[in-house]
Amino acid sequence: MASLIENLITGLNEEYAVYEQLLQVSMEKTSAIVSNNLDRLRDTTDKEQLLVDTVTGLESSRRQTMANIATVLNKKNEELKILDIVEFLKGQPEFHDPLLEINEKLAKLAKKLREVNSHNQNLIKESLSMIEYNINLVQNLNRAPETAEYSKDMFRKK
């Protein structure tokens, strides 16, 4: 069981490190969106995708470790949460404390990442709205004026 907990803590620390990098890239993305730098935006999006792929692999390993821990604890895998394991380890501070700490750090980081991504999403929506407005404006300027043509003959009595 101890090796499973150590694997879990190690895996969560690795996830945390990648999520920190992801947060930095997301903040770079904000700057690229605001400055309307499409090349930089493409680069940050590519970096972001690589980090997301890395996180996906780490999450898969964590899920497997959690499934193994659930088996040892005779719990259902779907119902077992990290806080349940923390509670189980209350009498073992060498595992309890680091697991609780990384869980709290991950929760805070995930919240910050959600905020930055939500902000980026709003900026992109606003940017797209401005682009659409500009396209419509240019299209309307290129159209021929649709005014009625008046002539002196139009007011004659018939």
Description:
With about 160 residues, this protein is mainly alpha-helical. The chain has a single domain (about 1-140), classed as FlgN-like (Methane Monooxygenase Hydroxylase, Chain G, domain 1). The chain contains four helices and no strands. Helix 1 (about 1-35) runs antiparallel to helix 2, helix 1 packs parallel to helix 4 (about 95-140) and helix 3 (about 80-90) runs antiparallel to helix 4 (about 95-140).
Count of discrete alpha- or pi-helical segments spanning 4 or more residues = 4
CATH superfamily: FlgN-like
Shape: elongated
From the alpha carbons, calculate the radius of gyration and give it in angstroms. 28 Å
CATH architecture tag: Up-down Bundle
Structural class: mainly alpha
CATH-defined topology:
Methane Monooxygenase Hydroxylase, Chain G, domain 1
Main pleated sheet: none
Distance between the termini: 104 Å
Count of discrete domains: 1
Strand count: 0
Query: What's the rounded overall pLDDT mean?
Result: 90
Proportion of residues in β-strands: under 5%
Question: How is this fold's topology laid out?
Answer:
Elements: H1 2-34, H2 38-73, H3 82-88, H4 93-142
Helix pairs in contact: 1-2, 1-4, 3-4
Observed structural traits:
158 residues, mainly alpha, Methane Monooxygenase Hydroxylase, Chain G, domain 1, 4 helices, elongated
Care to give the gist of this entry?
By secondary structure, the protein is an all-alpha fold.
